[in-house]
Design brief:
By secondary structure, the chain is mainly alpha-helical. It has one domain. The chain is built from three helices and no strands. The chain is flat. The chain starts with 13 loop residues before the first helix and ends in a 6-residue tail after the last helix. The model has no long low-confidence stretch (mean pLDDT about 80).
Length: about 100
């Protein structure tokens, strides 16, 4: 079954929405337990990010039973949505004066 992320979340089929929710939870756990990347060189940063992504895909496959391709697509979509959400939240905070402008 092909996953469809092009539609709005409320219009997604139940399977896709469930997978996206699981991927989002995994994304948050990976971020929470990731080492601080600020002081790392670029090669180490990329290696840590790649390792975290691979582990996230493996976990998603184990807990949902989806194939590798669907797990990768779903985790990429969850990461993209989280990044867009974070950018929007930061923009709103700046606009409302809740956060200092850089």
């Amino acid at each position: 079954m092909t996953l469809d992320f092009e539609c709005d979340s409320k219009d997604m089929d139940q399977r896709t929405a469930g997978l996206l929710e699981a991927a989002s939870s995994i994304y948050h756990l990976v971020i929470e337990w990731s080492p601080d990347l600020q002081e790392r060189d670029e090669v180490t940063k990329q290696a840590l990010i790649n390792a975290a992504f691979i582990k996230g895909v493996n976990v998603l496959q184990i807990i949902t039973g989806v194939d590798h391709k669907d797990a990768v697509e779903c985790l990429i979509e969850a990461c993209d949505r989280e990044t867009k959400s974070r950018v929007n939240i930061e923009y709103i905070k700046r606009q409302m004066g809740w956060e200092e402008n850089d």
